[in-house]
Amino acid sequence: MKKIREIIRLIHTPGQSLRTISASVRSSPSTVLDCKNRFRASGLSWPLPAELDDSQLEGILYSGSRPSRGDKVMPDFAYVHAELRRKHVTLSLLWQEYRLAHGESGYQYARYCELYRSWCGPLDAVLRQEHKAGEKSFVDWSGDGIDIVNRETGEVWEAPLFLGVLGASGYTFAKAAPSREMPHWLRLHSEMFEYFGGVTAVVVPDNEKTGVTLPCLYDPEVNRTYAAWAEHCDTVILPARPRKPKDKALVENAVLNAQRWILAALRNHTFFSVEQANLEIARLLEEYNARPLQKLKVSRASLHESLDKPVLKALPTRRFEPFSWAVVPVHIDYHVEVEKHRYSVPYTLIHKKVEVRWTGTTVEVFYNGRRVASHSRNFVPFGFTTAPEHRPQKHNAVLDWSPERFTKWAAKMGPKTEATVAAILCSKSLPEYSYRSCLGLLRLGDKHGEANLEAACARALGLAAPTYRTVKTILNSGAYRLLPFAVNQPDDKQLSLPRHDNIRGAAAYR
After folding, report:
1. Which of 178, 367, 454, 486 is the least crowded, having the fewest Cβ atoms under 10 Å away?
2. Vertex 22, ends 20 and 26: CA angle to 5°?
3. Quick check: helix, strand or coil at residue 371?
4. Rounded to the nearest 5°, which phi and psi values hold at 497?
């Protein structure tokens, strides 16, 4: 109106043309002419009355020619704000639909956008972010947790509180966990998606060490197990930038609300287990999501049903099973150690480095990206789990030995050999300790002949010394050619030696 008053003054100043006036007030000549015609039609005189203010002057000059703001139909900006979160919906499209519905009673596009931005001004920082439906979910740990009391000792410890928020609707998930370790971190992610009823395209975590191995502004490194979980759920991990809380303002606001509406509400409760605390958290969470938002006049649960849930990806058919990774050496016994238990790998990998991935049920070994071994998980400390195909062939031959095998082998050579082998097997506390002696004994038959071995075993039995060394000595000395020594002969026929104090009979050696 200041410019209009200046135009009216210049019009009544002698010597001022339309072009001169338009250049002076920086308006087009047509605007100056329109103002001049309106002033003449208004019946006003120059100079203008001192009591005439700007609103009165505007009403006189422009009444009946330009609809007042009150004549326009105000758009439903709560609906506009919600629709903008749907995929491919733009403000221009919503304005066209608004004009089709109200015609000339609707605002022009520029004014429409201006009014929408003005309406968005009082909204909080979370709602000003225009997240598309089903696109992102934000996750984080609350700074404060839930106090849990140990029934037996009375000790109080704090269970961390996990929070997840959908970008478009603000629909929130909250649950306490025993710890911030990877298995609980991933389990809560899966439970979050189950609570949401689907999977978002992107998950935005903070730079929590559990999920992000190396925080970086340009190329953050995500934990391998976390990345495998994302692949299993068909989503993408996109960590927030370090020291940029606005990247995850939604979940930051959810943390604040959780502390106010959940933790504060439970401040006078005493919990003896995480499960007990989660029952109360679930009850308060339902109330929180059902509470109408002050500006939008609609609840997070309603927005979730109309915006996010219809476009979320389907849940995986089975839960992801958390696993751990480690790079370990292959020992000389072609086994790798995983949490105090040893698992076999192909013997050709001895002294090499391999990657081991284990879960609660399986252990897998990878070399150069290829899986080379797989075992069922065994929790016996310092035990061995060995696959026969991982051993060298000669090791398998040794492990196939048994008392029955040696006895049958010896029986083919003769009864005395069989008896000698049986005596050797019984001479040790465990038969396995005598396998090498039996093998050495039977191989003497290859060198000296099976018949000679049978004779040597007979003589060894007669001497009550059925051992590998005795039989070998008999064969090497040729004593097997002599008659077997009769240990059961009567004492008076055993020896014909003179009596002497330094000579002892056979009975002294039994």
Report:
1. 486
2. 125
3. strand
4. -110, 150
The one-letter amino acid code at 330 reads: V
Contacts of 175 (CB under 8 A, 6+ apart): 161, 162, 188, 191, 192, 278, 281, 282
Q: Output phi, psi for 220, to 5 deg.
A: -70, 150
Strand 341-344 versus strand 146-149 pairing type: unpaired
Q: Which two tokens stand for residue 297?
A: 């006049």
Q: DSSP for 33-95, please give it.
A: HHHHHHHHHHT--SSPPTT--HHHHHHHHHTTTS--GGGSPPP-HHHHHHHTTSTT--HHHHH
- Cβ burial of 275 (10 Å; 0-12, 13-18, 19+) is exposed
Q: Output the DSSP codes for 212-263.
A: EEE--SS-PEEPHHHHHHHHHHT-EE-PPPTT-GGGGHHHHHHHHHHIIIII
Distance CA 231, CA 323 (A): 14
Tokens of 382: 């310092």
| Interatomic CA distance for residues 425 and 419, integer angstroms | 10
- What would the two tokens of residue 170 be? 């603000």
Which of 446, 442, 434 minimizes the C-alpha distance to 414? 442
Name the residue among 408, 373, 369 with its Cα closest to residue 389.
Answer: 373
124 with 254: CB under 8 angstroms? no
> How long, in residues, is the chain?
510
* In 376-449, alpha helices (H): 393-399, 403-411, 415-426, 435-448
CA geometry: angle 446, 452, 457, nearest 5 deg:
100
Q: Which two tokens stand for residue 490?
A: 């009567």
**What does pLDDT average to in each consecutive run of 10 residues of the chain (510 residues)?**
83 81 82 84 80 79 55 82 74 84 83 83 52 83 86 88 86 90 89 92 81 65 83 86 60 73 83 91 89 80 87 88 85 85 89 88 90 90 84 63 83 91 82 75 88 90 89 88 54 54 73
End-to-end CA distance of the chain: 136
CB atoms within 10 A of CB 393: 7
Which amino acid belongs to residue 113?
A: C
* Of the candidates 383, 308, 295, 381, the residue with the CA atom closest to the CA atom of residue 85: 308
Q: In what order do the strands lie in the sheet with 236-237?
A: 172-176, 161-166, 136-141, 202-205, 236-237
Strand-pairing partners, residue 355, are 327, 366
